Amino acid sequence: MRFHLCRFLPEDDVDLEALVNDMNSSLESLYSTCSSQQTESTPLLHNGQTSSSHQHHHHHTSLRRSQPMHILAVRRLQVEEQQLRTSSLPAIPNPFPELCSPASSPVLSPGSLPPGEPSTGKYIVKIFSEDGMGKVVEIPADMTARDLCQLLVYKSHCVDNNSWALVEHHPLLGLERCLEDHELVVQVQASMNSDSRFLFRKNYAKYEFFRNPLTFFPEHMVAWCQETNRPIPPSQLLQNFLATSSCPEIQGYLYVKEMGRKSWKKIYMFLRRSGLYCSTKGTSKEPRHLQLLADLEDSNIFTVITGKKQHGAPTDYGFCIKPNKGRGELKELRLLCAEDEQGRTCWMTAFRLFKYGIVLYQNFKIPQQRKTLISHFPAPVRSVSENSLVAMDFSGRIGRVIDNPVEAQSAAMEEGHAWRKRSQRMNILGSHSPLHHSSLSSVIHIAQLWFHGRISREESHRIIHQQGQVDGLFLLRVSQSNPKAFVLTLCHHQKIKHFQILPCEEDGQVFFSLDDGATKFTDLIQLVEFYQLNRGVLPCKLKHPCTVVAL
What we know:
Layout: H1 16-32, H2 52-56, H3 71-86, E1 122-128, E2 134-140, H4 145-156, E3 164-170, E4 175-178, H5 185-190, E5 197-202, H6 208-211, H7 213-216, H8 223-228, H9 234-242, E6 250-257, E7 264-272, E8 275-279, E9 290-294, E10 299-304, H10 307-311, E11 318-323, E12 334-337, H11 341-356, H12 358-375, H13 384-387, E13 392-393, E14 400-401, H14 405-429, H15 437-443, H16 457-466, E15 473-478, E16 486-492, E17 495-506, E18 509-513, E19 520-521, H17 524-533, E20 544-545
Parallel strand pairs: 1-5, 15-20
Antiparallel strand pairs: 1-2, 3-4, 3-5, 4-10, 6-7, 6-12, 7-8, 8-9, 10-11, 11-12, 13-14, 15-16, 16-17, 17-18, 18-19
């Protein structure tokens, strides 16, 4: 039996000795004619060592003459070997994002890595909350905006109702937009400037147009509705936007900022799948009168948050179309302005539908499908201990179980009235307990997500605008005109309304009322819970609380 000693090399390594010997043998004929001496020796490597592979076959092959070596060739082989060895290293997160490239990217850019370095691995992303505090998160290259929102919800212990969004914010340009759920965060970050940042906030209006399309697309702005001269069912209206075979069109007047000037011009515009067009002759749709202003495929639509102050916009309802491959300069933006909030919402929603199509509907359906899967698993709504509870009557000498549900409900109401009388009696006596009911009712609402403390009227408008102007979006704040009162700020039909909550005293106890004392509540939590179930004097029920979380 024979044993052979073999040498195994990794796939990525290079055998320098074999490469040098091959080069020696290829140049042997060239240097043999010029050599004046013939000396029997083995080829030498660049470090002066004898080739082991050549000694192994010394008895089977003829003796070779010593050949001169090119040092540059050997160095080139060493560099190639080093590049091959480092090509499999992962991307290295930058521990000092403030000191990196001029773009101030929080990740080492591919250009700063050695040649051949793959752009895969982990990336560092910094997310900011509404209070300005940031959180650094390490994410993979293929993480979407939805996945990152889910991660932040988990880390921040927030309520997950699929209304959280990642916002691309440009403070110097005064622009922001919500990322679509399927967009890759790393790709978006690569196109952002050094002053731009990601924000984590609520956006209830992200897919609201799938639930109430007629609110987002008024008939006078949809060309197809005007041509048919009849009301369009909501399902058919959405199908026309999602189907690639149909050709819906949004039309209407918009203010357009002239390139290189500070003036704005009112022009009749058309939004189609192929792009945004303006008419050079009134409201004409003829091709010779249409001029292309922006392409949808290579652009994104942003909300202008400082239109009047920074750009001199004629109204507060500005938006712009920003190219993806631009350098983020002001001259590259196509600034537009609508007459009202409904018009701006219609143009921006149609832009998203034309660009992404059925992908938006799939993003809207994913959370609902997830809820359906969870509902298939049977889970008790109440615990075993709760199911074992029964109503008891201890008015007599011996307690008894109340079997009649009507009697049990009346007993619960009597117990509630008795508790209120006891609390009123405590108010009269002036209890100094730290859990005194009057003091508790005045501060119990501070920890609620919908309470925003002492903010101005303008600040409440800004928060409502940022979190999506849908029906039932609300917050509570302290009144600026009356320090003892509160204000309910509510959105209805894309308009913001304010309702004052006044304190009223009865039998020595303080109550809160929204309708001049007709309906009284012991604290603001009871008031909010009541109007979440009943509309009362409000235009709609309270549905979505404005929430600001700290990361």
